Amino acid sequence: MKNIVIVDYGLGNLFSINQAFLHFGYEPIISCNKEIILNADYLVLPGVGAFEGAMRQLNNLGLVEVLKEYVKSDKPIMGVCLGMQLLFEKSYEFGEHLGLGFIEGEILKFPSEVENVKLRVPHIGWNKINSFDRNNWNHSPLIELKEGAMMYFVHSYYAKPSNENVILSTSIYNKFEFCSSVQKGNIYGFQFHPEKSGEEGLSIYKNFLKIK
After folding, report:
1. Does residue 28 have a cis peptide bond before it, meaning omega lies within 30 degrees of 0?
2. What pLDDT score does 11 carry?
């Protein structure tokens, strides 16, 4: 049986992600316990809210070092929405704040306008994801998705990786193209909410569990 753990640090969409795994017959453990997290075969880092508050919670619970130790094991970890942003080195949301540093790059706010077109922030709703490198996409949890698959987004900030090679998909919001998912080794991040994106989104959780 696969040992799936969803990290509970008080700022995550725990119920919906839990339901996504239950949909395929798996029962995750929701926990902030160090030993439980380190013993996971598959780890999910959710997140809703502000970057600074999330990092503060992780630090207060002693989970930053735990997550770093887990990542060193090369076992799969998935960051969802804010959880993806936390994987990066820093964010400029309400100041400058250090992240977990697993992926080189930073988190930036959407521009107020692009080519004289104003952007409504936050970016909320359905949007297409497009492969950055189809070969990488086909060796990731996105494997079952077709080009232009629709996913559900809710965010005001986006990730800008230092190395484009980690980008799995991009999306376009009113002419502004941004990174919508990443992969670095066994570290995966999805800016959208797979658990709120129908059967196609749910397939991402299913295929995450096929990673060795």
Report:
1. no
2. 84
